Amino acid sequence: MSSIQEIRRPVEAELKRFEKQFPELIRSKVFILDTITSYIVKSKGKQIRPLFVFLSAAAAGNITEASHRGAGLIELLHTATLIHDDVVDDSNYRRGFFSINALWKNKVAVLVGDYLLSRGLLLSVENNDFGLLKIVSEAVREMSEGELLQIEKARRLDITEEVYYNIIRQKTASLIAACCAVGSASAGASPEIVAEMKQFGSLAGTAFQIKDDLFDFGSEDVGKPLGIDIKEKKMTLPLIYALNESGWMEKRRIIRMVKNEADQPEKVREIVEFVRNKGGLEYASGKMQEFAAEALSRLSCIPDSPAKESLAALVDFSIRRKN
Predict the structure, then answer these.
(1) How far is the C-alpha of 25 from the C-alpha of 130, rounded, in Å?
(2) Which among 170, 36, 29, 181 is positioned nearest to 97, based on CA atoms?
(3) Is the CB of residue 181 less than 8 Å from the CB of residue 198?
């Protein structure tokens, strides 16, 4: 498996430039806002989404100024949604750092999210990047719909495999799809190639989310607490498969346990063992491999290049990662 440093190599200079420019995109003359945005920059993750943008642009043509603005737009809107998510989930941590709402309370966190959203919109409007803005706005709409669909289904725990795929396509994969579409569109690629690259990102993002599902059942030693998704009553692919492989009485018992007793560690362990014994992890792993393989097949629309190789390696990295 390639390391993330090796994957970044074809666009390393562009990523370093982006990392220097991003703080300027979110800077404000309001002291509290400037303090918080500085904190946001310090707590940023692996920059996977800008990496998808720049690799897609390089693979589909050339990285342009529009590519940099597109990466900035996605990072601004994505960061805004994460801040709002932490408020909704009442979460105190994000990537090992205190969340904005934990340090500055919910009202400030919501307003900071709104500010970042406005900065992204203005960045596009002021530079006439309406095509890129349309791609990202559609992704944010899908993310919101996916979250609401998951909340609706969590009340009854009646998610089918088809509904599950729809939820994660909207919640997670839509933003990776937008990254690849924005990157290729900013490089001047044809609408057909942009559509293929968007589908590549959607499939890669789906595989990425299934990998996260597997972490919840202790498939890897990643330091993540066991059963977080179960405690939050999220119906993930391993659990859905296990329930489908069960008789009516057993299925009813497990669903009742998830619905009413998921706050009890011994019950969570029982659910995890149930999923493992039913082959849920093997089934989900197989589906993850299928989505990854289909994603890689979509890259046939672009010529061979170091950037294309890195995109393929990034898919492989996303399904083999340890955290």
Answers:
(1) 18
(2) 36
(3) yes
Query: Residues in the chain, how many?
Result: 323
Q: Could you say which DSSP state residue 138 is in?
A: H
Q: Helices 237-244 and 265-277: crossing angle, nearest 10°?
A: 70
In whole angstroms, how far apart are CA 294 and each of 1, 52, 193, 200, 316? 19, 17, 16, 8, 12
pLDDT at residue 225, rounded to an integer = 57
Query: Which residues, in sequence order, are CB contacts of 147 under 8 Å at separation 6+?
Result: 85, 171
DSSP 263: T
Q: pLDDT tens across 29-51, in order?
A: 888 888 877 777 776 667 889 99
Q: Look at the block and give the residue holding tokens 């737009």.
A: 73
Phi, psi angles (nearest 5°) of residue 93: -135, 150
Place of tokens 């008789």: 247
Element (H, E) at 264: none
| Dmax (CA) of the chain | 62
Q: Which residue has the higher pLDDT, 81 or 195?
A: 195
As given in the structure block, the two tokens for residue 202 are 């959607």
pLDDT exceeds cutoff 90 at 258 = no
Q: Tell the residue number behind the tokens 């294309």, with chain if given.
A: 308
Structure tokens at 198: 């968007």
Domains of the chain (ranges plus CATH)?
Answer: 4-320 (1.10.600.10)
Q: Is 255 helix (H, G, I), strand (E, B) or coil?
A: helix
Q: Cβ(217)–Cβ(280) under 8 Å?
A: yes
Instruction: Enter the DSSP assignment of 234.
Output: -
Higher-confidence position of 248 and 216: 248
Which residue in this structure is represented by tokens 């990643």?
A: 222
> How confident is the model over 73-123, as pLDDT tens digits?
999 998 888 887 777 777 776 666 777 777 788 788 888 788 889 999 999
